Amino acid sequence: MFCLTTFLIRRVLILPFMAVMVLLMLAPSQAQRRLALVVGNDAYENITALKKAANDARGIGETLTSLGFDVTTATNISRREMNQTLQNFNNSIRPDDIVLFFFAGHGVEIDGENYLLPIDVPDAKGDQLDFIKGETIRLNRVLEDLRARKAKLSLVILDACRNNPFTGSPGRSLGGKKGLARIAAPQGTFVMYSADVGEAALDRLGDNDKNPNSIFTRTLIPLMKTPGIDLVDTAREARRQVRKLALSVSHSQTPAYYDAVLGDFYFTPSSGVIVPGKPIANANVNVKPPEIKLALGDNGDQQNSGERVIPLQPAAVPLPAMVVTAGEKDLIKVWDADNFTLLAELNGEKKLFSTIKLIDNGRSLMVAGKDGSVVSYALPSFKKTNAFYPNFSVSVLTQANDGTIIVGGNNGILAAYDGATYREIWRRKAHDGIVSPILPIKNHVITASQDGAIVTTDVKTGQEISRVHTIAGGQITDITFINETTIVAAHEKGEIAYIDLSSRRILSAFQAHNGWISSVDVTPDGTAIVTAGVNGNLKYWSLGGTTLIKSIPAHSDVASGAKFLKVLTGRTLASVGFDGALRFWQDNGQRIAELKHGPAILYFDYISKP
Q1: Strands 189-193 and 153-160
Q2: Residue 417 belongs to some domain of the structure
Q3: Is 259 found in the same domain as 329?
Q4: What is the longest distance spanned by two Cα atoms in the chain?
Q5: DSSP string computed for 230-256
């Protein structure tokens, strides 16, 4: 179980992972081999010995052999032996191979990096960080070496140390905290941990637990053997089952995964038989996969909150009004705004978000990561369908009226991508600051930025049509249309400005909040605007004027956005906040419903009824 222990002075190094533009073969062919290196270390000489790591390695090795992998198994090996074993394994890899590395044993986190421990690692004091680094195996080196061999798919599964393996000393001690560090999974790599950030993984459920394997490995082995479950769903189901087992003894453990691949991989295809040279597409696809609850509500929130998970309907059936929320702790939830129920969620994939956008009329979700990757997921399965890497940090996304994907960045870059192929069409420097909102209108998009400019751009050519500057020093956070030529803009320091695009003039401006405004929208009757502010309040202002109509204390922390959407019963106002709540409001300020996202909501989007 991979619970990498940390040092007392922990530097949380958030490393992004990159999305990959490689489609995977679904089953091995004669030119595509399955190779695995499986390592289990129990017999540590100078630190706490383990009991189940070698058994875990043997169990995984036997399972992989039965599934058509050429397996090398090594147990209780020293640093020199571990280095040599890794080198020999890397030398055997050919391009287009599918390779898997499994490690069970002790691991530590040092200054944001993860290290795997051989059995001869010395005990250490808190001031011996660099010494320990030299006596261990750096995980990022393992990942980099696998990528360098150009395997089609690299799987890394880590079931490492549960507790602090070092004696330590007062002050800057080794292994002072539980948990594991985030990683940057290279392109074409899928990494699975047996415990999430800040969690310790269990070796056993108690003194009477006689199972020879850790709770993670004992869960993973039968899932590998189950026909018809792809790699992502294997990770999600392992997460659900391990969490349930750990909670049975009042322990919190939820495996996590880093997914930098596209396409499907099956340990066991639906036929249940590995046929060398025969793709799964030609195998027996009539075997019904086992009925397993996958992905939805796997963090227990559904049961605790009473929410109901509902499948989305086929393409021919109209979708409900939808709201998607995202933010801290790598969690995304999609909500039915007609019935105030949970539709789907992405939980367990370690990805730091920079923005989200519902596209294709709500049947897909586009997610930008802080590494600059942009990935689309089909809903409600949250299966990746495509990805691209714009080579800049993405701050905002939209889908133009013709289906083109428009991307804005922290460096002021604006770029367009074909909505079907994700091929880049054009890019240009549109702003001098972070591009924040993008509004599609006819054949154009309107962008705003912290540089205070509002720019109109032609979707097909990328040509600038017009540029308007807002109030002096105004850093724009959101814009919305009042009519085809007039825009209202919210600003970081609390100002509201009305701007005529045709004349390129500021019509009026006033101070609406004492601090940051996250969003602005026009009421359905067109008589007022609503702003969401840093103090959690939603404020209604007379349209075009400065009169405060009413103020609603909507959130106990920052209100990160509020927008009107059309639902079955008419128009409603949806607001989100750093308090982790999604709330719906009537015009009179009465709350209609509240849905609990969980951690702070930083980003949200919505699709209204037609």
Answers
A1: parallel
A2: no
A3: no
A4: 79
A5: BHHHHHHHHHHHHHHHHHTTT-----E
Q: Are 144 and 122 in contact (CB under 8 A)?
A: no
Q: What is the CATH number of the domain that holds 75?
A: 3.40.50.1460
550, part of any domain: yes
Rounded to two decimals, what is the model's pTM?
A: 0.82
**CA 23 from chain center: how many Å?**
20
Q: Are 173 and 116 spatial neighbours (Cβ–Cβ below 8 Å)?
A: no
pLDDT in tens, 65-108: 999 999 999 999 999 999 999 999 999 999 989 999 999 998 88
Is 156:192 a contact under the CB 8 Å cutoff? yes
In order, the DSSP letters of 184-236 are -PPTTEEEEESS-TT-PPPS-SSTT---SS-HHHHHHHHHHHSTT-BHHHHHH
Residue with structure tokens 């995977």?
24
Q: How many CB atoms lie within 10 A of CB 48?
A: 14
Contacts of 541 (CB under 8 A, 6+ apart): 496, 512, 528, 529, 530, 531, 547, 548, 549
Q: Residue written as tokens 């489609």?
A: 23
Residues 347 and 244 both lie in one domain: no
The list of the chain residues with pLDDT below 70 reads 1-31, 125-127, 161-164, 167-180, 271-317
In-domain check, residue 408: no
Is-contact 365 377, C-beta < 8 A? Answer: yes
Q: Which domain holds residue 82?
A: 34-282
Give the chain's radius of gyration (CA, Å): 26
Spatial CB neighbours of 573, under 8 Å, sequence gap ≥ 6: 521, 530, 538, 562, 563, 564, 584, 585, 586, 587
My answer on whether 272 and 306 are in the same domain is: no
Tell me the CA end-to-end span of the chain in Å, nearest whole number.
49
CA distances from 325 to 16, 171, 355 (A): 21, 41, 10
Give the dihedral sign, CA 401/562/307/226. Answer: positive
- Which residue(s) pair with 606 in the sheet? 323
Residue 596: give its domain's CATH number.
2.130.10.10
Question: CA 42: distance to chain centroid?
Answer: 33
Per-residue three-class SS string for 306-353: CCCECCCCCCCCCCCCEEEEEEHHHCEEEEECCCCEEEEEECCECCCE
- Pair 113, 48: CB distance under 8 Å: no
458-490 tens-digit pLDDT: 999 999 999 999 988 889 999 999 998 899 999
Q: Find out whether 142 and 64 touch, Cβ atoms under 8 Å.
A: no
Confirm if 220 and 214 have CB atoms less than 8 A apart: no
Distance CA 444, CA 447 (A): 10
- Whether 374 and 480 map to the same domain: the answer is yes
